[in-house]
Amino acid sequence: MAGGHLLLEDRPGTGKSTLAEALARSSCLAFKRVSFTSDLLPADLTGVNVFEQSSGSFRFQPGPIFTQVLLADEINRASPRTQSALLEAMAAGRVSVDGSSHPLPQPFFVIATQNSLDQVGTSPLPEAQLDRFLMRLSLGYPSRSAERDLLLGRAQGLDGLEPAIQSADLQELQQRCELQHCADTLIEYLLDLVQTTRRGGVGLSPRASQGLLLAAKAWSLFEQRPHVTVDDVQAVLPAVVEHRLDGGSPSGSDGATPLSMALLQQVNALR
Questions:
Q1: Residue 104 has pLDDT above 80, yes or no
Q2: pTM of the model
């Protein structure tokens, strides 16, 4: 609803790729998966110009990035050059090949999975790449009852997944999200949070503050509130800001991590 990109970080086998495809199917969006191996080239992702002898001219052959939901699987196993090929697509919704710009289908989402950095063959994403992701989440291990259903074959597979929303409806929700009312006091509170991170080091970027506001708007709309509250900002804060700050660990469904809690305490003390 906020129109941002998602980074899923966890250990292998926890269902990150399955979740990404389930989101695409339930939203009636085109889906493609790319494994970010060490030998993946930027052209393998964006596409290439192919010479056609019959016409004597070049024709652009789109790569797998030309979809609506792109699963960048194990993104931190690819080279920095290939990772950077995603930057323009994530920021502007287009790719440039040989000086020509090609728009991507809309809506366009990148859902990237990232294994823990203690895994063999992984490398950390550059800060510029991390800043393009609206949120970073960690799925964690399933509950005992859910894993029992999985072992007994009771879990519903992707083939039985029914669409929950149409693509046009999703785009309408995105427009409604942008129009959610924000009081001046709420904007000041958000600015207090952002300014606190910039004291004594590299803090949140303007892109991050925009993302935090958009995520809070989406949360308030999901909660069926006509305006954004401080609770909405605090609810999305860990997932939005911690991958952008040094020392932050992935935030999961168990709530805020110590880093975001410390940030909130500092701001509340100031106010």
A1: yes
A2: 0.85
